[in-house]
Amino acid sequence: MTLDELKVLLGIPAEDTSRDIELALMLESGLVAAQEYCDKLDFLTLVDPVSGLLVLPAAVKLGIYEWVKASRTVSRRQGVTAESIGGLSQSFSGDATAVYSSVHTHWAPYHSAVRFFPVGRRYGR
Question: Closest by alpha carbon to 63, among 116, 108, 125?
Answer without folding.
Answer: 108
